[in-house]
Amino acid sequence: MISWRYVVPTLFTVAAMMAGFYSLVMTAAGNYLVAAQMIMLSMLLDGFDGNVARLLKGTTKFGAELDTYVDMTSFGIAPALLVYQAVLNQFGWPGFVLACAIVVSGVMRLSRFRIKDPFRGQRGFQGLPITVNACWLSMFIFVSESGLYQSERLVLHAGPLAAVVWTCTILFLVLQVSNIRYPKPTKALIGFVPCIIVITFLFLKMQLAVAAATGILVSCFIYSFITPLFPKHADLTAILDDVEEEEPEPTLRMP
Question: Which residues of the chain have pLDDT under 50?
């Protein structure tokens, strides 16, 4: 008989997959704002499943594998389709190539993650997590679709902002398949609470939502380019480099 301790976290994982799929549906319907919201909702639910599983002592290998497919759908394919439909299709074949690169980099990142990290990210990441680029892309689309800003400087198909957005996106794709070490920012449940609050703001009044989206974008930039410079990563690197000498924890589910 399957225990409820294993069922409850899996329900969160399935809900995260459904949110990712609904993002694809909304992108196809041209509702890019809701599509971006659904990517972030999927991210919230994806964070819940791991935290709930550890809290209930209900982690499983099945949950860890299922979570990987959610990541690919919600944080690889969904944001790639969203940015292609919203912006990149205006660039012709280079835009299509960049959208494909988002998917391919995500697949490579997740495939390597499954093979090389028996701790499932609980002791840090090798390479930038796929969720960071998903946040970066979806939140820029969200802000541009919010209707609060009517300025040519804030468009994503031309100008200084577009140059920054797509340059950082390309760097993120490289960092995803790099050997640079990153910490897991939401390992403890208390560290996950700010994420819950910020993502909830995305579904409230638009002024609050845009402020929350802006905060997420700043956090993505700092986490990607500043965090690896901290000295504490030396210890993290040593731990993960010696991981083969330790007994793995095969039931951990969160990447």
Answer: 119, 121, 233-255
